[in-house]
Amino acid sequence: MLFNSIAFAIFLPIVFVLYWFVLKNKKRQQNFLLLGASFYFYACWDWRFLFLLIFSIVLDYFSGIQIEKSKSKKMATFWLTLSIAINLGFLGFFKYYNFFVDSFADLIGGFGFAVHPWTLKIILPIGISFYTFHGLSYIIDVYKKKISAEKNFIEYALFVSYFPLLVAGPIERATHLLPQVKKARIFNYELAANGVRQILWGLFKKMVIADNCAPIVNEIFGNADQEPASRLVIGVVLFAFQIYGDFSGYSDIALGVSRLFGMELLKNFAFPYFSRDIAEFWRRWHISLSSWFRDYLYFPLGGSRGGMWMKIRNTFIIFLVSGFWHGANWTFIIWGGLNALFFLPLLIREKNRNNLEVVAMGKLIPTFRDFVNILFTFTIVCFAWIFFRAENLSAAISYIKNIFDSSILQFPKPLPKKEFFLIVFMLFVEWINRTHDHGLEIHRWKPWLRRVLYIVVLFLVLHYSNFGNHEFIYFQF
Q1: Which end of the chain is more exposed for a tag (fewer CB within 10 A), N or C?
Q2: Domain boundary, last residue among 187, 221, 241
Q3: Per residue, what are the HEC states of the chain?
Q4: Mean predicted confidence (pLDDT) in 5-33
């Protein structure tokens, strides 16, 4: 079931009415309803993989209790290791089995040996990378005694499978979401109204920006050898906004839907294309994943406590693992490695935490220096996106090679005027509201002006949306 589908437009109001009007002030029954709705939501993709989700929930629920009950560090470590091994084993099998088999065959073939690898037609369970990380963070936190093991199975299962975040994040922490699941919720009109506005903005970014950019991006990347360099540049820029509109749009809808049920999810995007350097970009893009790797991989590796060599090593590990998390393809690993290289000069010069505040705070327009830095950061991010979008390494290298051609001086035809107009509109709205959580959280505007903007955005959604139930890009991860 897609957030941008008619089915979800029917599903959500039904759950909302049952939750607030039928089960009002009945926290236990509300949680049971949300858990049932979450399982149904997931089963709509492929009911067979619902059993894998339930197995993962039971495994981590039981492991957390055993870790807490263990009388020795050795026994607690055993249960932690067992849970991590099984979780990563499932993730590795479904997501990376064919990648490792093919890569091994290519390696052996490079030495002159003919190998016929045995690959499998494996269907990737949707959301497995996300709910696996939910469970892993929980058992690690229990092991480190940051939280107590959850004894209520329904509440723990809801934390892992809560439908707004189930298939594409944000990646939640038990320390943040479980307390909200456990306490009684009272309907908050302002919170719900803000949620509706965030849903509308998320639909705009997905259905208007991402879905309108997608056909042009597909055409350009699919015919890169025949396109002039100027069109290739346009293809990369449009893909940058396609993936941003697609993924941040999903996150906005997820956060908005959750607010309808009185719960707050972790913020996942903070206007990343207004970043002045690559470090700021990664503090603003897919925040829940970046912070997850920081807390559960970077810090355990030593973080920044060691010398410069350790900082560089740990930074490259984080970016490479992040790239590999996105998919079983060398293009994602190269993408992660490129971002590490972009990050390296800031790390060496100890300037990776220079831009912590919102750009041009309290000003209408940025300084010339900030504008140049934003443009430069966006350019290198777009360069890395080529590897993220390309089908394979050879296609990515060919695409880059073709960009550096004299045809880059040609005027691109046809020029996607509608798409650029919509992107400029989105950037304008987000720029003036960059200090808040989403584009339509406009407290400072006069009421009548806010209503005008809501109507304009709603009109654009209805007029420009491609109502084809297009899936979100991050479903494949």
Answers
A1: N
A2: 187
A3: CCCCCHHHHHHHHHHHHHHHHHCCCCHHHHHHHHHHHHHHHHHCCCHHHHHHHHHHHHHHHHHHHHHHHCCCHHHHHHHHHHHHHHHHHHHHHHHHHHHHHHHHHHHHHCCCCCCCCCCCCCCCCCCHHHHHHHHHHHHHHHHCCCCCCCCCHHHHHHHHHCCCCCCCCCCCCHHHHHHHHHCCCCCCHHHHHHHHHHHHHHHHHHHHHHHHHHHHHHHHHHCCCCCCHHHHHHHHHHHHHHHHHHHHHHHHHHHHHHHHCCCCCCCCCCCHHHCCCHHHHHHHCCHHHHHHHHHHHHCCCCCCCCCHHHHHHHHHHHHHHHHHHHCCCHHHHHHHHHHHHHHHHHHHCCCCCCCCCCCCCCCCCCCHHHHHHHHHHHHHHHHHHHHHHCCCHHHHHHHHHHHCCHHHHCCCCCCCHHHHHHHHHHHHHHHHCCCCCCCCCCCCCCHHHHHHHHHHHHHHHHHHCCCCCCCCHHHHC
A4: 93
Predicted confidence (pLDDT) per residue in 370-397, tens digit = 999 999 999 999 999 999 999 999 999 9
In this structure, what are the phi and psi dihedrals at residue 24, rounded to the nearest 5 degrees? -55, 135
pLDDT digit string, tens, across residues 209-245: 999 999 999 999 999 999 999 999 999 999 999 999 9
Band of the pLDDT at 1, cuts 50, 70, 90? confident
In a domain, 282, yes or no: no
- Final residue in a domain of this structure, among 168, 187, 206: 187
- Structural domain including 252 reads 190-276+355-476
Shared domain for 156 and 225, answered yes or no, is: no
Residue 385 is assigned to a structural domain of this protein? yes
Per annotation, catalytic residue among 134, 286, 326, 438:
326
- Please report whether residue 375 resides in a domain: yes
Tell me what percent of the residues of the chain surpass a pLDDT of 70.
93
Q: Are residues 153 and 51 in the same domain?
A: yes
- pTM for this prediction: 0.92
Reported as a single tens digit per residue, the pLDDT across 254-297 is 999 999 999 999 999 999 999 999 999 999 999 999 999 999 99
Residue 309 lies in a domain: no
* Residue 378: HSE in the Cβ half-sphere, 13 Å Cα cutoff: 19
% of residues, the chain, pLDDT over 90: 73
Residue 448: band (very low, low, confident or very high) from pLDDT cuts 50, 70, 90:
confident
Give the mean pLDDT of the chain. Answer: 90
Where is pLDDT greater, at 303 or 159?
Answer: 159
- pLDDT of 170: 92
